[in-house]
Amino acid sequence: MKAAGGVPAWPLRSWVAGLLMAGVVGAGCARTVEVVGREVVTDGRQESAPARSAGNLPTSFIVVTPASVSTDCPPVLRDPGINAVLTLRHSTLQPTREADGTVHYWAIGDYTAEPRGRYGEEPGEGLRIDCSRLRALGIVRVETG
Fold first, then answer.
1. If you ran DSSP here, which 8-state letter would residue 8 be given?
2. pLDDT score of 98
3. Any residues with CB less than 8 A from the CB of 12 and at least 6 apart, and which?
4. Residue from 35, 10, 32, 8 nearest 22 by CA
5. CA–CA separation, 97 and 54 (whole Å)
6. What three-state secondary structure class fits 104?
């Protein structure tokens, strides 16, 4: 398979996956992470990047139920402005590399909101939240089962 400009796509995917894998495995975690275009594959599970921007968002959400581990996402959040309740459906730790080479992990959670549609999400969609800042990153597809 060739990417734009006739360069094979697999070396880039392999390099990015290797870089992410080194950071994740190096931290003692047994997860496999691969980035393919706008998709993130974690332990064989494919997750989409935020598909589009959400609207009607608060500056930050309020924690209703704290996470059992401080580095994880809270199971339940609330939007104080419209009194919507967000329920966590899936969370993951995303590695980020600082300029000095230090790798930090930040928790990202995919939430469904009740009442639905307040942020522009359609059926089967929810909000992706940066759990350290409690701010929305965008709308994503979520599993509701």
1. B
2. 87
3. 3
4. 32
5. 27
6. strand
Question: Which pLDDT tens digit goes with each residue over 19-40?
Answer: 444 443 433 333 333 433 344 4
Strands, sheet with 45-48, edge to edge from the N-terminal-most edge strand: 33-36, 39-42, 45-48
* Amino acid of residue 96: T
Terminal Cα distance for the chain, rounded:
35
Dihedral of the alpha carbons of 107, 110, 16, 28, in degrees to the nearest 10: 40
Tokens at residue 118, please? 């307040």
**List of residues 6+ apart from 10 with CB closer than 8 A:** 1
The whole-chain average pLDDT of the chain stands at 76
**Position 5 confidence tier, pLDDT thresholds 50, 70, 90:** low
